[in-house]
Amino acid sequence: MSSRKIVLASSSPRRRELLERAGISFVIDPANIPEDMTHQMPAQDLVKKLALEKARAVALRHPDAIVIGADTIVSIGKYNWSKPESVREARMMLEKLSGKTHQVWTGFAIIDTKKGKRLTRAVSTAVTLLPFKKREIDRHIKSVEALGGAGGYMIQKGGAALIKKIDGDYTNIIGLPLARVLNELRKLGVKA
């Protein structure tokens, strides 16, 4: 394992669990900055921008560390969504996603504050949801997870029951494309 301090610029328990499972030692220092979803740009550019903003904010506090920032959104048509801010918004998202394929984009940024290096990447996974009726949406909305994940569902919890098919990296849907992140960390001398 690298002796360099690794900092996760996120309070997401899902990202924390993924890095822990990979055997990475790290500290958590959330960026606590607002996610501006109003930018009119392609989803892959938006997630990279948001991830880099988070990593930069935290990198200022850690002069000799490797900082990882990440952001996940759901994209369908002209819509890019993060976590819903209300039950009403979660319902609207699930109604639009019902029976359709959407993209889950996670952007990640890694900043080596000692060497002055930085990178950003975006990974996409196609997710197809089952068609569901209003009562099924109502049942899902009653769970606390409807407000905890981009698009109003969490695939690693009850949201798994909504999924018809995925094409791509499962960990990306959870919030961090683990194999891609580990590959980039290895290039910086971090071993899992």
What can you see in these coordinates?
The chain is of the alpha/beta class and 192 residues long. The chain has a single domain, classed as Alpha-Beta Complex (Maf protein). It is built from 6 helices and 7 strands. Strands 1, 2, 3, 4, 5, 6 and 7 form a 7-stranded mixed β-sheet that branches. A hairpin with a 2-residue loop joins strand 3 and strand 4. The mean pLDDT is 91.
Mean pLDDT, rounded to whole units? 91
- Portion of residues in beta strands equals 25-35%
Structurally, the number of domains stands at 1
* CATH C-level category: Alpha Beta
Please name the CATH topology. Answer: Maf protein
- Shape annotation: elongated
Write the layout of secondary structure elements.
Elements (H helix, E strand, L loop, with lengths): L4 E4 L4 H9 L5 E2 L14 H17 L5 E12 L2 E3 L5 H11 L3 E12 L4 E13 L4 H9 L20 E5 L2 H5 L3 H10 L5
Parallel strand pairs: 1-2, 1-3
Antiparallel strand pairs: 3-4, 3-5, 5-6, 6-7
Question: What's a concise summary of this model?
Answer:
The protein has helices spanning 13-21, 43-59, 87-97, 134-142, 170-174, 178-187; strands spanning 5-8, 27-28, 65-76, 79-81, 101-112, 117-129, 163-167. It has 192 residues and is of the alpha/beta class. Helix 3 packs across helix 4.
Features:
6 helices, Maf protein, 192 residues, alpha/beta
